[in-house]
Amino acid sequence: MTLTAGVVAVQGDVSEHAEAVRRAGAAHGREVTVERIRTAGTVPDCDLLLLPGGESTTISRLLHDEGIAEEITAHVEAEKPVLATCAGLIVLSTDAGDDRVEELGLVDASVERNAFGRQADSFEAPLDVSGLDDPFPAVFIRAPVVGEVGDGVEVLASWDGRPVAIRDGPVVGTSFHPELTDDSRLHGLAFFRDG
């Protein structure tokens, strides 16, 4: 059966995520078609959902303006998997630490925006991720870090003693950008952990 992956395309690394989820599906013997989500009406038809990085205040505003926010909430409540990266994680958190971000509250965690510095402070680091055998080449760009997490949240990876990848039910959130590498294992971990 072909899976439909929706990439929220209001801002961020859309084509990179589309390619990564296709590669991850192929590695797990699944065919994946990708839909770009810019307006309401597409999310309900998606098996998988990706919420890329970008500018969290803009993303949260557009999700609410376009009626996509409620559909993302319903997707998570139906236990369908989501991968939220960088600003995507900020938007899904319960506390973004910024009144301009209207959080969806789908990941029980507080997040500190730009915790690793500005664009010039971007870096790549080999990251030990729970569920992956070898380190993952994590790309951090204006990356947030996770502060407090709820009881049901699993920390999948930390960098410099701070959580940078977490799982809360069907949602995997990362501070870094897994789509900017040729390594699709993080997408596989988020979407194909049973196969």
Describe the structure concisely for a colleague:
The chain has 195 residues and is an alpha/beta fold.
Question: Which descriptors apply to this entry?
Answer:
195 residues, alpha/beta, Rossmann fold, 7-stranded mixed sheet, globular
- At CATH level 3, the topology is Rossmann fold
User: What gap, in angstroms, lies between the N and C termini?
Assistant: 13 Å
The total number of structural domains is 1
- Mean pLDDT, all residues: 92
**Helix count, per DSSP?**
5
Helix vs. strand class:
alpha/beta
**Spatial order of strands in the largest sheet:** 2-1-3-4-12-11-10
Q: Tell the overall outline.
A: globular
Please write the string of helix (H) and strand (E) elements: EHEEHHEHEEEEEEEEH
Major sheet characteristics:
7 strands, mixed
Total number of strands: 12
Q: Catalogue the unreliable spans.
A: none
In terms of topology, how is this protein built?
Elements lengths: L2 E6 L5 H14 L4 E6 L10 E4 L4 H10 L2 H10 L4 E4 L1 H6 E3 L11 E6 L10 E5 L8 E5 L4 E5 L4 E6 L2 E7 L2 E4 L10 H7 L4
Parallel strand pairs: 1-2, 1-3, 3-4, 4-12, 5-6
Antiparallel strand pairs: 6-9, 7-8, 10-11, 11-12
Helix pairs in contact: 1-5
